[in-house]
């Protein structure tokens, strides 16, 4: 887990509050996302290959071109998306930011947390990453942090759960 201080001299509006030190997720998340996309694209390539053999027409080549464009786009965008994910623990809440073009900053007050899930599918376990999902009183809250080291996910789960219980008990 690497950290970098947010620019305190020039905060970037509502998405970069001054004085916040953002924690980053594992770069292995980019590899996992690229592998998932590669598997999906491989299926499309197989279908396109079958169509090229079976159909003597030009349109399967359009499918091949779209797959190549999608593969290049994914290879460029996914690592940038992963680098844009960050979280910061403050005294009363947790900040989670995501996105490059469409940026999101979620602020989750500890007192609103009901429970915290840690999840890891087969690929995530193989890549040694996990996801934390925060469940709050609001069903629409998108409070997930994907790509955490397992030890960091465990530490964060325990810390958030205890902070949530302490804040809830204080009500």
UniProtKB/TrEMBL annotation:
InterPro entries in the record: YdbS-like_PH
Domain YdbS-like PH: 83-160
UniProt KW keywords: Membrane, Transmembrane, Transmembrane helix
Taxonomic superkingdom: Bacteria
Residue ranges crossing the lipid bilayer per the database entry: 34-52, 58-78
Protein name: PH domain-containing protein
């Amino acid at each position: 887990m690497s950290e970098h201080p947010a620019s305190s001299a020039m905060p970037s509006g509502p998405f970069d509050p001054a004085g916040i030190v953002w924690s980053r997720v594992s770069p292995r998340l980019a590899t996992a996302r690229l592998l998932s996309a590669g598997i999906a694209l491989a299926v499309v390539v197989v279908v396109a290959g079958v169509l090229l053999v079976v159909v003597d027409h030009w349109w399967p080549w359009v499918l091949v071109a779209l797959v190549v464009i999608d593969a290049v786009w994914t290879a460029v965008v996914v690592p940038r998306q992963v680098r844009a994910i960050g979280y910061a623990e403050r005294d009363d809440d947790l900040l989670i930011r995501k996105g490059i073009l469409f940026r999101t900053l979620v602020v989750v007050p500890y007192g609103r947390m009901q429970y915290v899930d840690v999840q890891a599918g087969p690929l995530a376990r193989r890549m040694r990453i996990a996801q934390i999902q925060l469940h709050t009183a609001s069903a629409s809250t998108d409070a997930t942090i994907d790509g955490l080291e397992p030890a960091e996910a465990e530490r964060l789960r325990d810390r958030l759960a205890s902070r949530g219980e302490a804040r809830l008990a204080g009500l």
